[in-house]
Amino acid sequence: MFLSNFSKILRCKSSLIIGHPAADRITRKWHKKAIPVKWGKPGMGWTKLNFDGSCKVRTGNASIGGICRNHRAEFMLGYAGPIGRRTSTVAELAALQRGLELVLENGWYDVWLEGDAKSLVEIIVQRKLVRCKEVQKHVDDINLMIPELNNCIITHIYREGNRAADKLAQIGHQLQKPCIWRQSPPDEVLKIVREDAEGKVVLRTR
Question: In angstroms, rounded to a whole number, what is the distance separating the alpha carbons of residues 76 and 69?
Answer without folding.
Answer: 5
